[in-house]
Write a structure and sequence with these properties.
Four copies of one chain form a homotetramer. By secondary structure, chain A is an alpha+beta fold. Chain A has 14 helices and ten strands. Helices cover 54% and strands 15% of the residues of chain A. The two termini of chain A are 38 Å apart.
């Protein structure tokens, strides 16, 4: 058992860390008011400049093993570092949902699909959205999906309404990766297809941008998208019609590790701010660190972060060594543990800041929102707890049945 | 022991409930998008119309015992009903910080101060702000206050910076009730004065409006206000110079009961939405009420709401029967218990709604924010826990000292 | 709304409080080693003496309204006081399971049953047990009960195994109140009968006494009782054959209020000990009250106790004013809230005492056990949460069905 | 980063696991009634037989690196396995407090001390106790210690009272490792000495055996020991007079890892029992696993166990690679996290078993007690949270001071 990072990971921890600290953080701090609660749907010029810098420095597409040569366990600490900042993942071309879409295209795309969509995504010249969740059904149960993707000769026709389509507001968003029902009578896991729909296809309408807790998360945002008889060539299906399930599953393993490691970075940043505040702000004659249970809460935060970090690193290692099936419970575990931990650590940091913690003077409001939303996005806590319990109980049920 | 409401309270529960249900809620629903995350600092015309209606119906200034004839325990269920809506308290002229300011003027104001400020506030023709919290010190410890209110002949000169001055952005806000240090060498509880500062006095500058979690809470908002050599007549001091402490204390008892009862209304509303969602949304072939621990969480929410409601009613009864001193621990208790309960019930309601719970389609985002902010406003959890512990331990310390 | 106790309740609070403080507590303290973890199944002579005193002072059978003239809300604070001590309820003839059995006999017994069993129970000359729970089924679901009580001519024949039959070890235990299935084909709530079985009836065997966390709770204890073709006259059935359900239900309302109020007394006593320790024990140069989060935890304990006390008093008031049906949710609520609260307050008290808290030097070990066991006895937390949720959701389900 | 165990660890996981499963568990099950709540202070013959077996199989003294060649991270999973059983650690000569005493003698003992005491301890022919905690002071603050160990010529004289001296009741206990104050005027960390006191030395009196929650934990037990002018040769001091602090510190690192890994084993065992019960016991027509939030709680237990296991393994790795100083925070972290986790998992298992969970039919009562006591033993939660916070805040305080 060896908890040390590989030499390559250590080297990148240094260079990614330095880039984020020296280049990204100062730019963000200067743009703070704009970052938060913005309704400006244009791309901040700072982001464009930082993207060019990151690319030039080779800090680009690190999330994709075949490009970066990094395992999940090597990439994890880099994702954590990115999560400490607002723009970090984006300017290194490591932001969702593009990362997941690139993984899908890389693993399952045809040469034509790769040339048309993967190449510019890897280049960072276009952006993409992933359209799965729907407003009128419980999307954690995929069998309830209403959007259709019907094969009609050499075309696929998409009809339906999606929401929480992250990134669809971005001016560079040119690709929608859409999931729809192709054959409702097929077995449960062979009904859905993944279809590549250019944003500009007739019949595609972004009906509205959603607020999360009042925020639009511009310029990417989260959209409600209507598909009215949207027709694309059959060659725009990824894999086979009806083959969405396996593709989407493969997308989710690394994606959840990325999300969770970024959330750990965000919690670390919040704890850092909390500690700074705790030793520098004074009340009743003492630094507030020394009042009441504040030290205990800081200790609890450290323990919670450290436990969840080890849990994610272990899940990444399982994914690297045993594949998705061997990591199934572990990945659902981190998806429950990490966002709840992050929400609670950020809540503590807000409380230690008093009113300032809720204001635009600190990045704690958005941090809280990221953590909170992640308890719903990519499957709510309850669904993942269900997966963990199912795997835990399976051998007992088998044994009981054997009696 | 009798837990039933008085006949007068029961009657008002009916009429206030009907007004909120039939008049306020529909108007709010129609204005939902505008209500949330607005940056429009004008008064919605609906609010003006509803104020006129409420006044005509006698549902006006119910919070003030000498006007309404209601005890705290009678008013409590009305405040709860108001808390279920966004505009309810405001359109019945029962919204903070005006309520607290009116209480102060009613109890401690001179006839001139009453005529000049209390009358139009009771009329609803002007609004007011309360300026106590400061950005550079821990305002839960009043001895750290930096703003000064120095007596200079027949004038008072105010210098300093306040923030979280709620309501200062409102176009009708004409009065700032400001607390400042008059004599730093006086005993701890005789240093501060409360000064009535017209919003238009030279030297008063609203430097910026604060966001809470990205929101401005327009049109009242929360401002950062600078006072540069702001001079008002000595007769603008409420009570005596140095007399702020007792005045502010008296303001806080009923105020915290109002806040807490409104937060209970908000939690009830959230639980109501959660139950509606739980029985109507289906996943994995069942209403989500019947999935996993959802029923248990709904039961826990009911128990938490009910316990905290009884705690507030009991505190209100203590305030009515024993006065502020006899209710000191009880009032700090509710200030800890209720906002935490409300935050947690709203969080559950959000989770049961999935992504929709965070969006503008439901009022759960703002509800969460109200509850969360209340864990800081009017004294953070930690300070109130300290008060409760101090009162709890006092007899033991006395006895131990007696040994 | 009036939170003050009635004059009669106030008077008894005084006299019961004085008797417990002056007579019961000192006797208990002297017998501490014997009280805890005893395997001596004889009745302590101190208990007999205290019973005589209590009876002479009129502090006897206060639990039974028709005897004492007290409502549930009047009796509640007396039960709380009894719960602060180990012997208090017993020496005032107010201890379970006799109380419940006396209530059953009082409400549903024939004149003969009353003369034979109720009279000596009220006198305190005999004791009784209640035999419902069974080892091989989930007793929270009464439909799984296996013990039978079959009518055979003018006799009833009982067969089966019961456990957690509290009090069956007591040398004075002469009566077993047994529930069994009479007609498995009857509607769900008309299958069971309640039968009065003299302890000495042939076929009754106490197979073993159960430990709870290693303790026998002597001399009453909790037994596993086997019934082999146990025959008693048909006139030993309480009410009608098949009528057990309504009888048992009626037994549970007041019983749960008694249990919960006693658990509140126990939590108060634990908090009292915790406060004494916190101000008198010193570490790192301070009383431990002033270390870390100890004050906050003491405040949290106070708030939790106070909330749960109000919840129980309100449930008692509902039971008094609206009867069992109107108090159904409230009674399940207290059954969840109070034991969990008490377990957690006692846990805190143990922690503040360090190792001593677990030792025989303080009564915190047994207090913890009482609270923990009560989360299972009389229906586990989960079942009561289910009842609360069912009642909470009923109107929403009805409305959804109406659509 | 590599989470796989070393080949040597894997091999021992197999052989230790088999020995515990095939030899120890069946013997324990047969002796269950005797194991729990026993007041028999003789050594069970089964234990003696199993010790011989373990020694013959080479499963002996595995805890001591210089004997077993195992690192802390290699030994950790073996300790976890031992923790699943009651006798496991003891019969493999890996039980506290002997392990810690052997470590101390191995690292700091003179050749004579080793021959006289270490050899028979390693042989398993004698047992030992560690006497540090005192009844009248807060032993988490060593500066309050009252027991003295005064150098008088070529002797050391010990005076004082210790309690929670674990193992002192064992018939084979021949050695007391005692900490006392030698020079109260020396610097804080140079005041205390560790003295080897034969159990039979005149002036040593075991005043009483302590109960924990009513249990004596026989035959080792926990004693209160009085030392009245107890004289031993100066050569019985371990290290130098005044040198206790460094010695005791070194003892605690591995010891806490052992304790925590055993507590994880105990939690795993409890979860196993809970899962078996959840799938086999039926209520309301379903296995109780499928009722309410039971599956979610099982999932939460799995996540909590897994997180804490990784935390302990990481702490063990830090201890192996960076020594005690580098592992200081990590070791305090596990000491907080693991016992709380174990207490909570066992509580869940008890609840899923209903009344049976508290009875002598399952080993859950003792498991709960082990976990609960560990939140106090070896430093209470609060002290360890303090250590974690101190290390966390140190750099911020240094930086703030640098301003």
């Amino acid at each position: 058992m060896d908890f040390s990072h590989s030499p390559r990971a250590l080297e990148l921890i240094d260079s990614v860390g330095a880039f984020l600290r020296d280049r990204v953080s100062p730019a963000e701090a200067a743009a703070r008011e704009r970052l938060m609660a913005s309704t400006d749907w244009s791309v901040p010029p700072e982001v464009e400049a930082l993207k060019a810098e990151a690319k030039a420095a080779g800090l680009w597409n690190l999330f994709l093993p075949s490009v970066s040569g990094l395992s999940n366990v090597d990439y994890a600490p880099l994702a954590e570092l990115m999560g400490r900042t607002h723009w970090g993942a984006e300017v290194m071309n490591c932001a969702a949902p593009d990362t997941g879409n690139m993984e899908v295209l890389h693993a399952f795309g045809t040469p034509e699909q790769k040339e048309r969509w993967l190449a510019p995504l890897l280049e960072g010249s276009i952006r993409s959205a992933f359209c799965m969740t729907e407003p009128d059904v419980a999307s954690s149960d995929a069998t309830t999906m209403e959007c259709t993707a019907v094969v009609d000769g050499d075309e696929v026709v998409v009809n339906g309404v999606k929401w929480w389509s992250t990134g669809v507001g971005h001016p560079d968003c040119e690709l929608l990766v859409v999931m729809g029902v192709t054959d409702p009578s097929a077995p449960r896991h062979s009904r859905h297809s993944i279809v590549l729909v250019p944003r500009s296809t007739p019949g595609v309408t972004v009906e509205r941008m959603l607020q999360t807790m009042g925020w639009y998360d511009a310029p990417g945002g989260h959209g409600q998208v209507r598909f009215d008889d949207v027709r694309v060539p059959l060659s725009n299906v990824v894999g086979q019609p009806g083959g969405a399930f396996a593709i989407a599953q493969g997308r989710l393993g690394p994606g959840r590790i990325h999300h969770c490691m970024r959330a750990i970075g965000l919690a670390e940043k919040a704890l850092e701010l909390a500690c700074e505040r705790a030793v520098s702000r004074t009340a009743f004659g003492k630094p507030i660190a020394n009042l009441g249970g504040n030290r205990e809460r800081i200790a609890d935060a450290r323990m919670a972060i450290q436990q969840s970090r080890l849990l994610v690193l272990h899940a990444a290692w399982l994914l690297d060594t045993e594949g998705l099936l061997g990591a199934l419970s572990a990945i659902s575990q981190i998806k429950v543990v990490v966002p709840n931990m992050a929400q609670s650590v950020v809540d503590l940091a807000i409380q230690l800041h008093g009113g300032a913690g809720l204001s635009q003077d600190f990045p704690l409001g958005p941090a809280w929102l990221v953590a909170r939303a992640l308890r719903i996005a990519d499957g709510p806590d309850e669904v993942h707890r269900g997966v963990v319990a199912k795997i835990e109980l399976a051998p007992y049920i088998a044994r009981a049945a054997g009696n």
